[in-house]
């Protein structure tokens, strides 16, 4: 199991009213994943234009965990797919922005590739609330499990416990 932070970037955040809440969710999930020594990946969509990962989140990340991308769906990038494989990630907990663009395309690609996906409903956002709502419905219909941040934190902690004891 691993955590994926999709495009939580400095220049995108001001356009999204919910971005402070989403970044708070991401910080809680990063802390839980670190506590359990579970892998963390973060994507940056065209960082030259949209900026780097938000500073308060970036401080908590190892630079090796951050993958630049051009494709909306992260799994369309070789570097991202290789990172999933190298870290042995088969199930992904996802947070990010924007829900109806890069998050949705990433989740749909992950599902097509056979990954389990838990999408943190209060950890994703779009500029328009309707875009987020429609995207959540579409991703759930495709097979993503929609969870809340507290549930995802508990899953990360439980996943770390199972992995440390060899349980599946």
UniProtKB/TrEMBL annotation:
Pfam families linked: Isochorismatase
Designated name of the protein: Isochorismatase family protein
Family matches, as Gene3D superfamilies: Isochorismatase-like
Organism: Pelagibius litoralis
Residue ranges annotated for the Isochorismatase-like domain, each copy included: 3-151
């Amino acid at each position: 199991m691993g955590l994926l932070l999709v495009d939580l970037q400095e220049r995108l955040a001001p356009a999204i009213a919910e971005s402070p809440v989403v970044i708070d969710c991401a910080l809680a999930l990063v802390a839980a994943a670190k506590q359990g020594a579970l892998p963390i990946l973060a994507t940056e969509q065209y960082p030259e234009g949209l900026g780097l990962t938000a500073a308060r989140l970036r401080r908590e990340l190892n630079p090796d965990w951050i993958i630049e991308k051009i494709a909306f769906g992260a799994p369309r990038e070789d570097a991202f797919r290789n990172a999933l494989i190298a870290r042995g990630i088969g199930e992904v907990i996802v947070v990010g922005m924007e829900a109806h663009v890069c998050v949705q395309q990433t989740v749909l690609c992950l599902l097509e590739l056979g990954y389990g996906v838990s999408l943190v409903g209060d950890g994703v956002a779009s500029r328009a609330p309707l875009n987020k709502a429609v995207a959540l419905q579409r991703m759930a219909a495709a097979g993503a499990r929609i969870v809340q941040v507290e549930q995802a934190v508990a899953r990360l902690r439980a996943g770390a416990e199972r992995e440390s004891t060899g349980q599946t």
